[in-house]
Protein backbone atom coordinates (compact mmCIF):
# COMPACT_ATOMS: atom_id res chain seq x y z
CA UNK A 1 0.00 0.00 0.00
CA UNK A 2 1.18 3.57 -0.72
CA UNK A 3 0.28 7.08 0.42
CA UNK A 4 -1.57 9.28 -2.08
CA UNK A 5 -3.03 12.78 -1.73
CA UNK A 6 -5.33 14.48 -4.24
CA UNK A 7 -6.49 18.01 -3.53
CA UNK A 8 -6.88 21.65 -4.47
CA UNK A 9 -5.94 24.80 -2.61
CA UNK A 10 -5.57 28.56 -2.94
CA UNK A 11 -2.32 27.87 -4.80
CA UNK A 12 -3.95 25.75 -7.51
CA UNK A 13 -7.51 27.05 -7.83
CA UNK A 14 -9.29 30.41 -7.89
CA UNK A 15 -11.35 31.32 -4.86
CA UNK A 16 -14.57 30.96 -6.85
CA UNK A 17 -13.79 27.26 -7.44
CA UNK A 18 -12.69 26.66 -3.83
CA UNK A 19 -15.89 28.30 -2.64
CA UNK A 20 -18.08 26.03 -4.71
CA UNK A 21 -16.05 22.94 -3.76
CA UNK A 22 -16.19 23.60 0.01
CA UNK A 23 -17.27 20.54 2.02
CA UNK A 24 -19.71 20.53 4.90
CA UNK A 25 -18.94 18.29 7.88
CA UNK A 26 -21.49 15.74 6.66
CA UNK A 27 -19.90 15.79 3.20
CA UNK A 28 -16.47 15.18 4.73
CA UNK A 29 -17.80 12.17 6.63
CA UNK A 30 -19.40 10.70 3.52
CA UNK A 31 -16.27 11.37 1.45
CA UNK A 32 -14.05 9.48 3.91
CA UNK A 33 -16.52 6.59 4.15
CA UNK A 34 -16.84 6.29 0.37
CA UNK A 35 -13.06 6.44 -0.04
CA UNK A 36 -12.34 3.50 2.26
CA UNK A 37 -15.20 1.63 0.61
CA UNK A 38 -13.53 2.10 -2.78
CA UNK A 39 -11.34 -0.73 -4.07
CA UNK A 40 -7.94 1.02 -4.27
CA UNK A 41 -8.03 2.56 -0.76
CA UNK A 42 -7.52 0.95 2.66
CA UNK A 43 -7.29 4.09 4.83
CA UNK A 44 -8.44 7.68 4.30
CA UNK A 45 -8.55 11.14 5.86
CA UNK A 46 -9.76 14.49 4.55
CA UNK A 47 -8.21 17.88 5.34
CA UNK A 48 -10.78 20.59 4.58
CA UNK A 49 -10.07 24.22 5.51
CA UNK A 50 -11.14 27.60 4.21
CA UNK A 51 -8.51 27.46 1.47
CA UNK A 52 -7.78 23.79 0.81
CA UNK A 53 -9.54 20.46 0.30
CA UNK A 54 -7.27 17.42 0.36
CA UNK A 55 -8.06 13.71 0.39
CA UNK A 56 -5.37 11.39 1.77
CA UNK A 57 -5.52 7.64 1.21
CA UNK A 58 -3.45 4.47 1.46
CA UNK A 59 -3.86 2.91 -1.98
CA UNK A 60 -2.62 -0.24 -3.66
CA UNK A 61 -2.62 1.18 -7.22
CA UNK A 62 -1.43 4.66 -8.17
CA UNK A 63 -3.40 5.37 -11.36
CA UNK A 64 -6.57 3.72 -10.10
CA UNK A 65 -6.17 5.62 -6.82
CA UNK A 66 -5.82 9.00 -8.54
CA UNK A 67 -8.86 8.34 -10.71
CA UNK A 68 -10.98 7.14 -7.77
CA UNK A 69 -9.99 9.94 -5.38
CA UNK A 70 -10.50 12.63 -8.04
CA UNK A 71 -13.94 11.25 -8.88
CA UNK A 72 -14.94 11.11 -5.21
CA UNK A 73 -13.77 14.70 -4.61
CA UNK A 74 -15.84 15.88 -7.55
CA UNK A 75 -18.91 13.94 -6.43
CA UNK A 76 -18.88 15.22 -2.88
CA UNK A 77 -17.84 18.79 -3.67
CA UNK A 78 -20.54 19.23 -6.26
CA UNK A 79 -18.09 20.56 -8.86
CA UNK A 80 -17.97 18.55 -12.06
CA UNK A 81 -14.89 16.40 -12.58
CA UNK A 82 -14.04 18.05 -15.92
CA UNK A 83 -14.14 21.47 -14.30
CA UNK A 84 -12.32 20.37 -11.15
CA UNK A 85 -9.50 18.38 -12.77
CA UNK A 86 -7.39 21.34 -14.00
CA UNK A 87 -7.11 22.61 -10.43
CA UNK A 88 -6.22 19.30 -8.74
CA UNK A 89 -2.74 18.36 -7.61
CA UNK A 90 -1.44 14.89 -6.81
CA UNK A 91 1.35 13.87 -4.42
CA UNK A 92 2.54 10.29 -3.95
CA UNK A 93 4.67 8.49 -1.35
CA UNK A 94 7.48 10.74 0.00
CA UNK A 95 6.12 13.77 -1.87
CA UNK A 96 2.77 13.29 -0.15
CA UNK A 97 4.50 13.14 3.25
CA UNK A 98 6.53 16.25 2.36
CA UNK A 99 3.33 18.05 1.38
CA UNK A 100 1.49 17.36 4.63
CA UNK A 101 4.52 18.29 6.75
CA UNK A 102 4.86 21.55 4.79
CA UNK A 103 1.18 22.26 5.32
CA UNK A 104 1.52 21.55 9.05
CA UNK A 105 4.41 24.02 9.33
CA UNK A 106 2.43 26.76 7.60
CA UNK A 107 4.68 26.80 4.52
CA UNK A 108 1.72 26.15 2.21
CA UNK A 109 -0.69 28.51 3.98
CA UNK A 110 -2.09 31.67 2.46
CA UNK A 111 -0.24 33.52 5.22
CA UNK A 112 3.09 31.75 5.71
CA UNK A 113 3.69 30.49 9.25
CA UNK A 114 0.10 30.69 10.49
CA UNK A 115 -0.58 28.18 13.26
CA UNK A 116 -4.33 27.63 12.77
CA UNK A 117 -3.64 24.75 10.40
CA UNK A 118 -2.34 22.56 13.25
CA UNK A 119 -5.77 22.53 14.88
CA UNK A 120 -7.37 21.69 11.54
CA UNK A 121 -4.98 18.77 10.98
CA UNK A 122 -5.78 17.53 14.49
CA UNK A 123 -9.51 17.72 13.70
CA UNK A 124 -8.97 15.78 10.46
CA UNK A 125 -7.18 13.00 12.30
CA UNK A 126 -9.88 12.89 14.99
CA UNK A 127 -12.59 12.54 12.31
CA UNK A 128 -10.71 9.70 10.60
CA UNK A 129 -10.24 7.94 13.93
CA UNK A 130 -13.94 8.33 14.77
CA UNK A 131 -14.84 6.84 11.38
CA UNK A 132 -12.26 4.03 11.82
CA UNK A 133 -10.67 5.02 8.51
CA UNK A 134 -7.26 5.79 10.04
CA UNK A 135 -4.99 2.78 10.29
CA UNK A 136 -1.30 2.73 11.03
CA UNK A 137 -0.28 4.94 8.07
CA UNK A 138 -2.84 7.73 8.57
CA UNK A 139 -2.26 7.80 12.32
CA UNK A 140 1.52 7.88 11.95
CA UNK A 141 1.38 10.47 9.17
CA UNK A 142 -0.95 12.96 10.83
CA UNK A 143 0.50 12.57 14.32
CA UNK A 144 4.00 13.08 12.97
CA UNK A 145 2.73 16.03 10.93
CA UNK A 146 1.47 17.64 14.13
CA UNK A 147 4.84 17.06 15.81
CA UNK A 148 6.73 18.52 12.85
CA UNK A 149 4.50 21.58 12.84
CA UNK A 150 5.03 22.15 16.56
CA UNK A 151 8.77 21.66 16.13
CA UNK A 152 8.88 24.26 13.34
CA UNK A 153 7.11 26.82 15.51
CA UNK A 154 9.21 26.14 18.60
CA UNK A 155 12.66 25.88 16.95
CA UNK A 156 12.41 28.62 14.32
CA UNK A 157 11.00 32.08 13.84
CA UNK A 158 8.44 30.91 11.25
CA UNK A 159 5.82 32.86 13.22
CA UNK A 160 7.67 36.01 12.17
CA UNK A 161 7.41 35.06 8.51
CA UNK A 162 3.67 35.51 8.59
CA UNK A 163 0.68 36.00 10.84
CA UNK A 164 -2.47 34.07 11.50
CA UNK A 165 -5.18 34.60 8.92
CA UNK A 166 -7.14 36.64 11.47
CA UNK A 167 -4.22 38.89 12.38
CA UNK A 168 -3.31 39.37 8.74
CA UNK A 169 -6.93 40.17 7.88
CA UNK A 170 -7.13 42.79 10.64
CA UNK A 171 -3.88 44.31 9.37
CA UNK A 172 -5.49 44.63 5.93
CA UNK A 173 -8.54 46.29 7.47
CA UNK A 174 -6.26 48.73 9.28
CA UNK A 175 -4.79 49.63 5.86
CA UNK A 176 -1.24 50.26 6.99
CA UNK A 177 -2.07 51.73 10.40
CA UNK A 178 -0.97 50.10 13.62
CA UNK A 179 -3.62 47.46 14.31
CA UNK A 180 -3.88 48.20 18.04
CA UNK A 181 -4.23 51.94 17.39
CA UNK A 182 -6.87 51.25 14.75
CA UNK A 183 -8.80 48.79 16.95
CA UNK A 184 -8.70 50.72 20.24
CA UNK A 185 -12.19 51.49 21.53
CA UNK A 186 -14.06 50.04 18.55
CA UNK A 187 -17.10 47.79 18.79
CA UNK A 188 -16.85 44.39 17.11
CA UNK A 189 -19.43 41.87 15.93
CA UNK A 190 -18.25 38.26 15.50
CA UNK A 191 -20.62 36.04 13.53
CA UNK A 192 -20.05 32.36 14.29
CA UNK A 193 -18.65 30.58 17.34
CA UNK A 194 -16.42 27.90 15.83
CA UNK A 195 -12.65 27.63 16.10
CA UNK A 196 -11.86 30.40 13.59
CA UNK A 197 -14.48 32.75 15.05
CA UNK A 198 -13.18 32.06 18.56
CA UNK A 199 -9.66 32.88 17.39
CA UNK A 200 -10.97 36.09 15.79
CA UNK A 201 -12.75 37.10 19.00
CA UNK A 202 -9.65 36.45 21.11
CA UNK A 203 -7.49 38.41 18.66
CA UNK A 204 -9.91 41.35 18.65
CA UNK A 205 -9.86 41.37 22.45
CA UNK A 206 -6.07 41.29 22.48
CA UNK A 207 -5.66 44.20 20.05
CA UNK A 208 -7.91 46.40 22.17
CA UNK A 209 -11.50 46.57 20.96
CA UNK A 210 -13.88 47.79 23.67
CA UNK A 211 -16.82 45.46 23.00
CA UNK A 212 -17.38 42.13 21.28
CA UNK A 213 -20.82 40.83 20.38
CA UNK A 214 -20.97 37.15 19.41
CA UNK A 215 -23.81 35.92 17.21
CA UNK A 216 -24.37 32.27 16.40
CA UNK A 217 -27.22 30.04 15.25
CA UNK A 218 -26.78 28.03 18.45
CA UNK A 219 -27.10 30.70 21.11
CA UNK A 220 -25.51 28.57 23.84
CA UNK A 221 -22.24 28.39 21.91
CA UNK A 222 -22.23 32.16 21.46
CA UNK A 223 -22.90 32.62 25.17
CA UNK A 224 -20.08 30.22 26.07
CA UNK A 225 -17.59 32.13 23.89
CA UNK A 226 -18.70 35.46 25.37
CA UNK A 227 -18.27 34.04 28.87
CA UNK A 228 -14.74 32.86 28.07
CA UNK A 229 -13.84 36.32 26.78
CA UNK A 230 -15.26 38.02 29.88
CA UNK A 231 -13.49 35.67 32.26
CA UNK A 232 -10.09 35.60 30.55
CA UNK A 233 -8.75 38.44 32.69
CA UNK A 234 -6.15 39.34 30.05
CA UNK A 235 -8.14 42.19 28.49
CA UNK A 236 -10.74 44.80 29.43
CA UNK A 237 -13.13 43.79 26.66
CA UNK A 238 -16.84 43.46 27.39
CA UNK A 239 -18.43 40.52 25.54
CA UNK A 240 -22.05 39.47 25.15
CA UNK A 241 -23.97 36.96 23.06
CA UNK A 242 -26.96 37.52 20.78
CA UNK A 243 -29.05 35.22 18.58
CA UNK A 244 -28.55 35.38 14.81
CA UNK A 245 -31.81 37.28 14.46
CA UNK A 246 -30.22 40.25 16.21
CA UNK A 247 -27.43 40.61 13.62
CA UNK A 248 -29.12 43.42 11.57
CA UNK A 249 -29.47 45.60 14.66
CA UNK A 250 -25.96 44.82 15.90
CA UNK A 251 -24.57 45.51 12.44
CA UNK A 252 -25.67 49.13 12.78
CA UNK A 253 -23.83 49.46 16.11
CA UNK A 254 -20.64 47.63 15.11
CA UNK A 255 -17.47 49.19 13.74
CA UNK A 256 -15.80 45.89 12.85
CA UNK A 257 -17.49 42.68 11.72
CA UNK A 258 -15.73 39.31 11.46
CA UNK A 259 -17.75 36.44 10.00
CA UNK A 260 -16.82 32.77 9.73
CA UNK A 261 -19.75 30.36 9.74
CA UNK A 262 -20.46 27.06 8.05
CA UNK A 263 -23.38 28.49 6.11
CA UNK A 264 -23.67 27.50 2.45
CA UNK A 265 -25.32 30.81 1.51
CA UNK A 266 -24.65 34.45 2.28
CA UNK A 267 -24.97 35.57 5.90
CA UNK A 268 -24.68 39.29 5.10
CA UNK A 269 -26.00 40.59 1.78
CA UNK A 270 -24.82 43.84 0.25
CA UNK A 271 -28.27 45.24 0.95
CA UNK A 272 -27.97 44.40 4.66
CA UNK A 273 -24.55 46.05 4.79
CA UNK A 274 -25.87 49.13 3.00
CA UNK A 275 -28.79 49.35 5.44
CA UNK A 276 -26.36 49.16 8.39
CA UNK A 277 -24.18 51.97 7.02
CA UNK A 278 -27.26 54.05 6.30
CA UNK A 279 -28.43 53.45 9.86
CA UNK A 280 -25.09 54.75 11.15
CA UNK A 281 -24.84 57.81 8.90
CA UNK A 282 -28.49 58.63 8.26
CA UNK A 283 -27.74 59.06 4.56
CA UNK A 284 -28.21 56.74 1.55
CA UNK A 285 -25.17 54.70 0.60
CA UNK A 286 -23.63 55.27 -2.80
CA UNK A 287 -21.83 52.66 -4.89
CA UNK A 288 -18.26 53.29 -6.04
CA UNK A 289 -17.27 52.41 -9.58
CA UNK A 290 -13.97 50.54 -9.52
CA UNK A 291 -12.46 51.23 -12.93
CA UNK A 292 -8.88 50.33 -12.10
CA UNK A 293 -7.20 48.25 -14.83
CA UNK A 294 -6.34 44.74 -13.72
CA UNK A 295 -2.59 44.37 -13.30
CA UNK A 296 -1.06 42.41 -16.13
CA UNK A 297 -4.42 41.94 -17.83
CA UNK A 298 -4.66 42.21 -21.60
CA UNK A 299 -6.49 45.22 -22.92
CA UNK A 300 -9.98 44.13 -23.98
CA UNK A 301 -11.01 44.34 -27.58
CA UNK A 302 -13.11 47.30 -28.50
CA UNK A 303 -16.80 46.65 -28.94
CA UNK A 304 -16.98 46.84 -32.71
CA UNK A 305 -20.10 46.95 -34.84
CA UNK A 306 -22.33 44.00 -34.21
CA UNK A 307 -20.31 42.35 -31.43
CA UNK A 308 -22.63 43.63 -28.70
CA UNK A 309 -25.81 42.66 -30.45
CA UNK A 310 -28.47 41.51 -27.96
CA UNK A 311 -25.89 41.46 -25.14
CA UNK A 312 -27.65 42.35 -21.86
CA UNK A 313 -24.42 43.81 -20.43
CA UNK A 314 -23.58 47.47 -20.41
CA UNK A 315 -20.43 47.33 -22.53
CA UNK A 316 -19.72 50.99 -21.85
CA UNK A 317 -18.65 49.91 -18.34
CA UNK A 318 -15.26 48.49 -19.28
CA UNK A 319 -14.58 45.00 -17.91
CA UNK A 320 -10.78 45.31 -18.01
CA UNK A 321 -9.04 41.99 -18.40
CA UNK A 322 -12.21 39.91 -18.30
CA UNK A 323 -14.25 38.32 -21.03
CA UNK A 324 -17.71 39.81 -21.40
CA UNK A 325 -18.88 36.22 -21.30
CA UNK A 326 -16.97 35.45 -18.10
CA UNK A 327 -17.86 35.30 -14.41
CA UNK A 328 -16.87 38.89 -13.58
CA UNK A 329 -19.12 40.22 -16.32
CA UNK A 330 -22.26 38.64 -14.86
CA UNK A 331 -21.51 39.27 -11.18
CA UNK A 332 -24.57 40.64 -9.45
CA UNK A 333 -26.93 39.95 -12.34
CA UNK A 334 -30.55 39.08 -11.64
CA UNK A 335 -31.68 35.59 -12.54
CA UNK A 336 -33.80 36.75 -15.50
CA UNK A 337 -30.90 38.75 -16.94
CA UNK A 338 -28.62 35.78 -16.41
CA UNK A 339 -30.87 33.57 -18.52
CA UNK A 340 -30.83 36.18 -21.27
CA UNK A 341 -27.05 36.43 -21.06
CA UNK A 342 -26.67 32.63 -21.13
CA UNK A 343 -28.79 32.46 -24.28
CA UNK A 344 -26.65 35.19 -25.84
CA UNK A 345 -23.47 33.24 -25.05
CA UNK A 346 -24.93 30.02 -26.44
CA UNK A 347 -25.80 31.82 -29.71
CA UNK A 348 -22.14 32.94 -29.97
CA UNK A 349 -23.10 36.33 -31.39
CA UNK A 350 -19.85 37.98 -30.24
CA UNK A 351 -16.40 38.03 -31.69
CA UNK A 352 -14.08 39.13 -28.89
CA UNK A 353 -10.52 38.20 -27.94
CA UNK A 354 -10.69 36.04 -24.87
CA UNK A 355 -8.50 36.10 -21.80
CA UNK A 356 -6.19 33.11 -21.38
CA UNK A 357 -7.96 29.73 -21.51
CA UNK A 358 -11.38 31.31 -22.22
CA UNK A 359 -13.56 29.94 -25.01
CA UNK A 360 -17.27 30.39 -25.69
CA UNK A 361 -17.81 26.76 -24.71
CA UNK A 362 -16.09 27.04 -21.32
CA UNK A 363 -17.80 30.36 -20.62
CA UNK A 364 -21.17 28.82 -21.45
CA UNK A 365 -20.46 26.04 -18.94
CA UNK A 366 -19.50 28.65 -16.36
CA UNK A 367 -22.74 30.54 -16.94
CA UNK A 368 -24.61 27.29 -16.25
CA UNK A 369 -22.68 26.80 -13.02
CA UNK A 370 -23.47 30.38 -12.00
CA UNK A 371 -27.14 29.77 -12.71
CA UNK A 372 -27.02 26.83 -10.30
CA UNK A 373 -25.43 29.12 -7.72
CA UNK A 374 -28.25 31.62 -8.16
CA UNK A 375 -30.77 28.88 -7.50
CA UNK A 376 -28.93 27.85 -4.33
CA UNK A 377 -27.88 31.14 -2.73
CA UNK A 378 -30.12 33.72 -4.43
CA UNK A 379 -27.46 35.73 -6.28
CA UNK A 380 -24.20 35.37 -8.16
CA UNK A 381 -21.09 35.75 -6.04
CA UNK A 382 -19.02 38.62 -7.34
CA UNK A 383 -15.50 37.98 -8.60
CA UNK A 384 -13.46 41.08 -7.85
CA UNK A 385 -9.89 42.23 -7.80
CA UNK A 386 -8.34 42.56 -4.34
CA UNK A 387 -8.85 45.99 -2.88
CA UNK A 388 -5.50 47.79 -2.46
CA UNK A 389 -4.43 48.88 0.99
CA UNK A 390 -3.39 52.30 -0.24
CA UNK A 391 -3.38 54.38 -3.39
CA UNK A 392 -7.10 54.09 -4.20
CA UNK A 393 -9.34 57.04 -3.47
CA UNK A 394 -12.27 55.90 -1.34
CA UNK A 395 -14.21 57.65 1.42
CA UNK A 396 -13.13 56.82 4.98
CA UNK A 397 -14.82 53.54 6.02
CA UNK A 398 -17.72 53.55 8.46
CA UNK A 399 -17.84 49.77 8.64
CA UNK A 400 -14.97 47.25 8.44
CA UNK A 401 -15.84 43.71 7.30
CA UNK A 402 -13.56 40.64 7.53
CA UNK A 403 -14.96 37.50 5.89
CA UNK A 404 -12.94 34.37 6.74
CA UNK A 405 -15.56 31.84 5.58
CA UNK A 406 -15.43 29.49 2.63
CA UNK A 407 -17.93 29.62 1.02
CA UNK A 408 -18.03 33.33 1.74
CA UNK A 409 -20.43 34.74 4.34
CA UNK A 410 -20.45 38.35 3.13
CA UNK A 411 -21.60 39.44 -0.31
CA UNK A 412 -18.50 40.55 -2.21
CA UNK A 413 -20.57 43.33 -3.81
CA UNK A 414 -20.35 45.13 -0.45
CA UNK A 415 -16.83 46.25 -1.38
CA UNK A 416 -18.38 48.74 -3.83
CA UNK A 417 -20.38 50.49 -1.10
CA UNK A 418 -19.08 53.87 0.01
CA UNK A 419 -18.11 53.77 3.68
CA UNK A 420 -17.34 50.02 3.64
CA UNK A 421 -13.99 48.23 3.63
CA UNK A 422 -14.29 44.50 2.95
CA UNK A 423 -11.44 42.01 3.27
CA UNK A 424 -12.17 38.37 2.42
CA UNK A 425 -10.29 35.21 1.49
CA UNK A 426 -9.89 36.39 -2.10
CA UNK A 427 -8.43 39.77 -1.24
CA UNK A 428 -6.23 38.18 1.46
CA UNK A 429 -4.81 35.84 -1.16
CA UNK A 430 -3.89 38.77 -3.36
CA UNK A 431 -2.46 40.82 -0.52
CA UNK A 432 -0.36 37.97 0.91
CA UNK A 433 1.08 36.88 -2.43
CA UNK A 434 3.79 39.53 -2.18
CA UNK A 435 4.32 39.31 1.60
CA UNK A 436 8.03 39.15 2.48
CA UNK A 437 9.35 35.75 3.48
CA UNK A 438 11.52 35.52 6.54
CA UNK A 439 14.87 33.72 6.49
CA UNK A 440 13.38 31.25 8.96
CA UNK A 441 11.40 29.70 6.11
CA UNK A 442 14.57 28.06 4.81
CA UNK A 443 15.22 26.57 8.26
CA UNK A 444 11.70 25.16 8.36
CA UNK A 445 12.18 23.65 4.93
CA UNK A 446 15.29 21.88 6.21
CA UNK A 447 13.29 20.55 9.18
CA UNK A 448 10.60 19.27 6.83
CA UNK A 449 13.17 17.54 4.58
CA UNK A 450 14.85 15.85 7.57
CA UNK A 451 11.51 14.75 9.03
CA UNK A 452 10.34 13.33 5.69
CA UNK A 453 13.52 11.24 5.48
CA UNK A 454 13.09 10.02 9.06
CA UNK A 455 9.40 9.23 8.51
CA UNK A 456 10.15 7.22 5.38
CA UNK A 457 12.86 5.24 7.16
CA UNK A 458 10.57 4.52 10.11
CA UNK A 459 7.75 3.38 7.81
CA UNK A 460 10.03 1.09 5.83
CA UNK A 461 11.49 -0.37 9.02
CA UNK A 462 7.99 -0.90 10.43
CA UNK A 463 7.01 -2.66 7.20
CA UNK A 464 9.55 -5.42 7.80
CA UNK A 465 8.87 -5.83 11.54
CA UNK A 466 5.97 -8.33 11.15
CA UNK A 467 8.20 -10.47 8.89
CA UNK A 468 11.03 -10.46 11.45
CA UNK A 469 8.57 -11.31 14.26
CA UNK A 470 7.11 -14.14 12.15
CA UNK A 471 10.63 -15.45 11.51
CA UNK A 472 11.49 -15.47 15.22
CA UNK A 473 8.13 -17.10 15.99
CA UNK A 474 8.85 -19.84 13.47
CA UNK A 475 12.32 -20.35 14.99
CA UNK A 476 10.80 -20.59 18.49
CA UNK A 477 8.32 -23.18 17.22
CA UNK A 478 11.17 -25.22 15.68
CA UNK A 479 13.10 -25.10 18.98
CA UNK A 480 10.02 -26.14 20.95
CA UNK A 481 9.41 -29.06 18.58
CA UNK A 482 13.01 -30.28 18.81
CA UNK A 483 13.01 -30.05 22.64
CA UNK A 484 9.78 -32.05 22.73
CA UNK A 485 11.33 -34.67 20.43
CA UNK A 486 14.44 -34.80 22.65
CA UNK A 487 12.28 -35.33 25.75
CA UNK A 488 10.71 -38.33 24.04
CA UNK A 489 14.03 -39.87 23.06
CA UNK A 490 15.86 -39.15 26.33
CA UNK A 491 13.23 -39.52 29.08
CA UNK A 492 15.91 -39.97 31.74
CA UNK A 493 17.08 -36.37 31.66
CA UNK A 494 16.37 -34.44 34.84
CA UNK A 495 14.86 -30.93 34.86
CA UNK A 496 18.25 -29.20 35.24
CA UNK A 497 19.65 -31.00 32.20
CA UNK A 498 16.57 -30.24 30.12
CA UNK A 499 16.87 -26.56 31.10
CA UNK A 500 20.50 -26.41 30.07
CA UNK A 501 19.72 -27.99 26.69
CA UNK A 502 16.77 -25.62 26.10
CA UNK A 503 18.91 -22.57 26.91
CA UNK A 504 21.76 -23.79 24.70
CA UNK A 505 19.47 -24.34 21.69
CA UNK A 506 17.75 -20.94 22.20
CA UNK A 507 21.13 -19.20 22.43
CA UNK A 508 22.29 -20.82 19.17
CA UNK A 509 19.10 -19.78 17.34
CA UNK A 510 19.19 -16.23 18.76
CA UNK A 511 22.84 -15.76 17.77
CA UNK A 512 22.20 -17.05 14.26
CA UNK A 513 19.20 -14.75 13.76
CA UNK A 514 20.50 -11.65 15.52
CA UNK A 515 22.86 -10.25 12.88
CA UNK A 516 20.58 -10.98 9.86
CA UNK A 517 17.47 -9.49 11.49
CA UNK A 518 19.28 -6.37 12.71
CA UNK A 519 20.89 -5.87 9.32
CA UNK A 520 17.68 -6.46 7.38
CA UNK A 521 15.92 -3.78 9.48
CA UNK A 522 18.72 -1.35 8.67
CA UNK A 523 18.57 -2.17 4.97
CA UNK A 524 14.78 -1.98 4.89
CA UNK A 525 14.89 1.56 6.36
CA UNK A 526 16.92 2.79 3.41
CA UNK A 527 15.28 4.00 0.18
CA UNK A 528 14.35 1.04 -1.97
CA UNK A 529 14.46 -1.30 1.02
CA UNK A 530 10.87 -2.51 0.75
CA UNK A 531 11.94 -5.66 -1.10
CA UNK A 532 13.90 -7.06 1.84
CA UNK A 533 10.73 -8.21 3.58
CA UNK A 534 9.75 -10.20 0.48
CA UNK A 535 13.24 -11.71 0.29
CA UNK A 536 13.11 -12.75 3.94
CA UNK A 537 9.71 -14.40 3.51
CA UNK A 538 10.96 -16.28 0.43
CA UNK A 539 14.27 -17.42 1.96
CA UNK A 540 12.66 -18.82 5.10
CA UNK A 541 9.41 -19.94 3.45
CA UNK A 542 7.32 -17.94 5.91
CA UNK A 543 3.56 -18.35 5.78
CA UNK A 544 2.07 -15.04 4.43
CA UNK A 545 -0.96 -15.47 6.69
CA UNK A 546 1.30 -15.72 9.74
CA UNK A 547 3.02 -12.45 8.76
CA UNK A 548 -0.38 -10.80 8.17
CA UNK A 549 -1.63 -12.02 11.57
CA UNK A 550 1.43 -10.51 13.28
CA UNK A 551 0.85 -7.23 11.43
CA UNK A 552 -2.79 -7.14 12.57
CA UNK A 553 -1.76 -7.90 16.14
CA UNK A 554 0.84 -5.10 16.13
CA UNK A 555 -1.68 -2.63 14.70
CA UNK A 556 -4.30 -3.68 17.26
CA UNK A 557 -1.83 -3.13 20.10
CA UNK A 558 -0.85 0.29 18.73
CA UNK A 559 -4.49 1.29 18.43
CA UNK A 560 -5.20 0.22 22.02
CA UNK A 561 -2.19 2.15 23.31
CA UNK A 562 -2.95 5.23 21.23
CA UNK A 563 -4.06 8.29 23.26
CA UNK A 564 -7.72 9.15 22.89
Annotation keywords:
564 residues; alpha/beta; 6-stranded parallel sheet; 10 strands; elongated
Would you mind describing this structure in some detail?
- This protein is α/β, with parallel strands linked by helices.
- The chain is 53% helix and 11% strand.
- It has helices spanning 15-21, 25-37, 62-77, 81-84, 94-104, 116-130, 136-155, 158-161, 165-174, 179-183, 195-207, 219-231, 247-253, 270-281, 327-330, 335-347, 360-377, 425-432, 440-489, 495-525, 531-539, 544-561, and strands spanning 2-9, 41-49, 52-59, 89-92, 187-191, 211-216, 238-243, 256-259, 399-403, 420-424.
- Strands 7-6-5-8-9-10 form a six-stranded parallel β-sheet, sandwiched between helices.
- Strand 6, helix 12 (219-231) and strand 7 (238-243) form a beta-alpha-beta unit.
- Helix 16 runs antiparallel to helix 17 (360-377) and helix 19 packs antiparallel against helix 20.
- The longest helix has 50 residues, at 440-489.
- The model is unreliable at 291-332, 344-358, 377-386 and 388-392 (pLDDT under 50).
